[in-house]
Model the fold of this input.
Amino acid sequence: MRRFVVIVLDGFGIGAMDDAKTARPGDEKASTLGSILKDHPDLKLPALEKLGLMNAFGKESACMKFSPEANYGKSELMHFGADTFMGHQEIMGTLPKKPDVHPFQEKVDAVAEHLKNAGHKVEIIECEGLRYVLCDDYVTVADNLEADLGMCYNVTAPLDFISFEKETEIARLVREVVTVGRVIVFGGTGNTMDDLWKAQEVKNGRFIGIASAKSRSYEQGYQCLHLGYGVDKNVQAPTILTKAGIPVTLIGKVADIVANDQGTSISCVPTKDCLDHTIEELKKMEKGFICTNVQETDLAGHSQSSAEYKKILEIADEGIGRLLPLLTEEDVLVVMADHGNDPDIGHSKHTRECVPLLIYQKGVHGKTVGKRKTLSDVGATACSYLGAEAPQNGTPFWPVRD
Done:
């Protein structure tokens, strides 16, 4: 019985990266954990404290101290910016490729031509001097207005009128000719093109798109797929492990954003549910890999509420506390994050922070793995520990060789 479990507390950074000042000006002040502790010095997370959270953070709080038995380290982000999607691709072993940032205006003609050449009907929609694409009467291709502008394009459709599979085919063609970080294809049922037209918005005079929430896509039958720049599922841990006959289960948001064609993917958001699923899957698995994303920590950061963040951390800590006794001497647990999301930084975006690496293996104590240069070291460690080929990127750190 040898199982490797990763729990990603989404957006739970422990202090700005050294390059934050130049890579994301303003983020050099970021410390997600620091802000929560400043606002809530009474915060007590017994499971994470035992695993070495304060050791990784580098200082103690009024109610949480260093753990002499903990195995710990921390990791920088190799991907550009601070992004959940690319953070998880990096965790799984992808070598991050630097995307371009530009408005869809610069790609309208190339996208339209590529879609026409593939046999699709293409119209150009114009508004306020800006243009975007309508493909096959029901699929809009335009700027994403929710992420940092210019970083993503959205492919949106009402799924009562065109299938998600056909919409995805169109999105994959868009992905072939654009170099922004993500092409996000999504849609729902129960809405119409009229809802999409009503959701059309212009931002900063340079970006035009369909505002996701206003499009009514989320209300029922929602489906979504993220197509990342430079992301190849075949060089990532889930595909490598399942090809080697090793079971893989992805739980929470990671189930929506990481390819796991031959494994089990369980989408859910509530933190307790995510941890409950993790425990259930662990009990069923004799050998394998589980990765769980706790998304509500990130949502608390976006809402700029340290009180909500504290509450979600307490729920996650309780779940991790229930998980620990189920692990054997052969199992490894890594608790980490994918970036920061400081609730007190003054904006609602992610922050470029180092993240904790808290490592638990029953009977192994006091090991340190230092500061890792990439989150991919986790995926590389999982593959190595479970006896599979290495992913594209990363260096194994466990077991520690004395």
